[in-house]
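so my prof wants the structure for this chain in the tokens format not the other one, which i didnt know existed until like an hour ago. anyway here's the sequence
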Amino acid sequence: MDEEIISEINKPEKTALVVWDVQKALVERIFNKDEFLGNLKRLIEAAHQLKSPVFFSKITPLPERFESRARKLVFRKRRMALMPEGLELAILPSQDDIVVSKNTASIFIGTNFELMVRNAGIATLIFTGISTEFGVESSARDAFNRGFFVVIAKDAVSSSSKEGHDRSLQNMENMLCLMTTGEILQMWNS
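here's what i got, hopefully its the right format
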């Protein structure tokens, strides 16, 4: 990786960790649950120690009448499986963490996320969470297109589909920075 890029992303004070949709119903369906949760907890703990903001996104469905027809058709099966108890976060945010309720596959649409990170001088976003090929990739590409440095913690993202997950990581590798949890922690500790 280019040294200039490393120097930009190795600024914890200008970095935020995004924990994408780590809700109970989704965590129960991923292919690498134990590895995923272990790596995610390590990253959250390190971000807290470094005083880097941690943002949890949370699926918050719109009332049925106000949901788009396209989303209703595509996500009908998935939406039915997300009962209120399944929407609870599987990892509880600390009092300083921020929970962003959203109802699309981009953390930037319909939220104040971009306003908050720009106000805080954040330049780098590290993405973790579920599902790699849906919200993680959509938000990461959106972040890149908005001028943020983007890091995908490739062993702290997951999906119910290993094939979809692997394909998404392969797609993102062409334009974004993919690192393991260990590499991110090593960079932060240097």
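also thought this was worth mentioning. Residues 3-188 form a domain with the Rossmann fold fold (CATH 3.40.50.850).
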